[in-house]
Prior knowledge:
The chain is an alpha/beta fold.
Amino acid sequence: xxxxxxxxxxxxxxxxxxxxxxxxxxQRMAWKDELLQIIETRMAAAPVAVPQDPSxxxxxxxxxxxxxxLGAQELHVFWVTKEAETGYRVISALxxxxxxxxxxxxxxxxxxxxxxxxxxxxxxxxxxLLWPDxxxxxxxxxxxxxxxxxxxxxxxxxxxxxxEPVLIVARSLSPETTVTPQAVTTAGIPNxxxxxxxxxxxxxxxxxxxxxxxxxxxxxxPEG
Length: 224
């Protein structure tokens, strides 16, 4: 009986852990669905002027419009498109009429166009505010000599271009330029929680079935 009780406790604890993980993933799935809905709502809203003091929490993905002068200096962020084309995202300063300087992600250029000249001057942009979270400890440091970055580090780019740490990712530019805007989307935000829910609850079912089968066989042996 002690042996049976021991395995019953172990089986119950294991089942409780697996069910808890499944419930946690259900909660995470609900949170992620709500987050994606908020993002979609902000992105689809009518563009507004860039807030004077935008907050990452309140204004991330917010649709905005702005007019100003493109700075001549560029930063190039190494990028691979969904079509597996290698190139760079072009980051410039946008100098607004009131003297405010913001970061502007103008879009994508193929690697072969890195050294080509691009227009500066007056431009109107519609896009979204973004605070990218792209780098980690494996990300190479920016190569100042070749002017290549490997992540859109807002603080670093703002320091290099002398702007506020506020990034607009263009989805349209007027007049159009040789840079192809790469609009912000939710496609890169993973939402795999349903798979995890199914996995944990499936493991819980299998664990429960194996525990019940083991206990049944253990009880049946003495009777035989």
